[in-house]
Amino acid sequence: MRPADEQLELLRRGIDAITPEAEFVKKLEHSARTGNPLRVKYGIDPTGIDVHLGHTVPLRKLRQFQDLGHTAVIIIGDYTALVGDPSGRSDHRAGLTKEQVDANARDYLAQVGKIVDLSRAEVRRNGEWFGSWTFLDVLDLTRRMTIGQVSARDDFAQRIRGEKPVYLSECLYPLMQGWDSVEIRADVELGGTEQLFNLLVARDLQQEEGQLPQVAMTMPILVGTDGTQRMGKSLGNYIGVAEPPETQFGKLMSIPDGPMRQYFTLLTDFPLAEVDALLGPGFNPRDAKEVLGKAVVSQYHGTEAAEAAALAFRRRAAGEDPVEIPEAPLGRDQLDADGRIAPPKLLVALKLESSTSNARRVIEQGGVTIGPDRSPVTDPRGPIAVEDGLIVRVGKRKIARVRLA
């Protein structure tokens, strides 16, 4: 195991705060001296099935702890997800059913496994302990926190001032998350900056149970592809871990210049001195984004896929089609007697658009071309003669080659 000072230097990268840092240093020193790994906790509530790059920020830090010889403990919050985490929200989060949570959890670990080495991780569901609790056990937990402590939270205080409801079930969430740390005897817990209250609740509970309290390590919130709001699927500004290489690369090339340093710092292992040089005076945003795109895509799809995605992007930027064009089947029974089809129906059949209304809109905006000469399609009502192998393009990123079946 590396000396504590070397570990601390590596682990500080991309960190907003370590609370309290002096205790963390002592834990690292004791671990390095004795060879006993720290137990580093990260909790995930399976409220959805898509892991995006914002989620990977603490997961990458967890992997860094693993690579330094420590134990990663992943908590799948199958019971906390039933409550819904209120942290950082201006409204209450609707709880999910147990069936929804179980279905989401099945996909979560497969995506998390792209970042964390699950063969070396301890994976626990908090239903292991909460599932056997009685109502009296729940009452005992509620005695560990006052209404004053809960209402002092920024998110709750804002909702109370705005006359928005704060449900009693939400007040249980920080206690449940904190109790997870008691059960697995966490030394460190990772989370976003909005999670600090919950992480500190765990310290109090651990001390009441005679354990050494965990250290809270919080990370910045990754901004989305719009460059302003936090990354999130509901905002449409996210980059999914499971998305195809070309989609990931294209989205990374589209981010504003402002968040590039944050992306390099939180999403890659590039030495910060190299990042400074790359983003220094007179830097070329396009070249820097290509370096960023390759670095991120290669983590989830490999170097070859990242290079291919970069090449495809360059070709499209130059007005060329990609080297490999995905084929899409089209049943001959969808064509009229003259082998033609309405443009909106064609785009939906090729899965280039999700609905005929969307297809009509993009056609009227001049975003559709067909064939090797890129003939524009501008009339949603004008039928297209379809031959096997016809190339159909929507914007710069969507393309398909028709295969008549």
From TrEMBL:
What's a Pfam family this protein contains?
Answer: tRNA-synt_1b
Specify whether GTP-binding is a keyword of the entry: no
PROSITE patterns to which the protein is assigned, alphabetical: S4
The record's catalysed reaction(s) read: tRNA(Tyr) + L-tyrosine + ATP = L-tyrosyl-tRNA(Tyr) + AMP + diphosphate + H(+)
Biological process per Gene Ontology, one example term:
tyrosyl-tRNA aminoacylation
Q: Family, per the entry? A: Belongs to the class-I aminoacyl-tRNA synthetase family. TyrS type 2 subfamily.
| Function in brief | Catalyzes the attachment of tyrosine to tRNA(Tyr) in a two-step reaction: tyrosine is first activated by ATP to form Tyr-AMP and then transferred to the acceptor end of tRNA(Tyr).
Its assembly, as annotated, is: Homodimer.
What is the designated name of this protein?
Answer: Tyrosine--tRNA ligase
User: The organism's lineage?
Assistant: Bacteria, Pseudomonadati, Planctomycetota, Planctomycetia, Isosphaerales
Gene that encodes it: tyrS
